[in-house]
Amino acid sequence: MLKIAYHPIFKHPLPEGHRFPMEKYELLPQQLLHEGTCSKNNFFAPEPASDEDVLAVHQKEYFEHLKNLTLDPKAVRKIGFPLSEALVERELRIAQGTIEASEFALEHGIAMNIAGGTHHAYSYRGEGFCLLNDQAIAASYLLRKNLAKKILIVDLDVHQGNGTAEIFAKESRVFTFSMHGKKNYPFKKEFSDLDIELENGTGDEDYLGLLKNTLPRLLDEQEPDFSFYLSGVDILATDKLGKLGCTQAGCRERDRFVLQICHDRKIPVEVSMGGGYSPQLRNIVDAHANTFRLAQEIFF
Length: 300
Known about the structure:
Blueprint: E1 4-5, H1 24-35, E2 43-44, H2 51-55, H3 60-68, H4 73-79, H5 85-108, E3 110-113, H6 134-144, E4 151-155, H7 162-167, E5 174-181, E6 194-198, H8 204-222, E7 226-230, H9 248-264, E8 269-272, H10 281-299
Parallel strand pairs: 1-2, 1-3, 3-8, 4-5, 4-7, 5-6, 7-8
């Protein structure tokens, strides 16, 4: 059975002017239930992640300031959301959702988080709507519990996974692969183990060609026994924070290729949603829903 992390706090309301990136977290599970892709049994509600699991990735001083709501105002502005107890709890539950989804993926081949993909969170700070790095926390958990020996993180959000790259810069058991807009945020990039930078306007043919030439080779070379997939839909031409030119069909084919190759090679995969900022919410929700539809089709 496909297991999906979801908690009502994922859709926690924010002050006016900060709600747009969050609305999809309420609408996406409703859509999946409405169309019959998922039932209530597919969803599980995570508790907050433990301090131990968070501190395996994030620096203690930063995490303490988060919990105590004492971050410097400049650091809060860099995150992009007003800091609150509910927001910190939300990130902790997202992180735990990805940990548990990783365990479910070991059992079922795949599991998903309706939120997550908080790849701009560094070990020592947050930025870009990200406070804690959920996939980094889960990857560290798998390694510490000896549930995986070599992990591949496939980050196909339109923005580079800069926080993830920083966190695992010296960890040979985690290979970070980010394919993203060259001239998009973050404007100062970190160094992933493999970065593919895309020019503005890159469309389906070039995008999919690069991906299909790269991912099989990485799997051959790295031989991971677990994978994380960040399936941001901000690669769409309609996205107001992205600069690429992909269509809904191209985005769906991207997801199909990644999930199919993980399935065929028997590599468990945890999927977190990442970004999506098209002006029409229906475009965001439908593009994200495609990822869940394909997970059901390919794995179950």
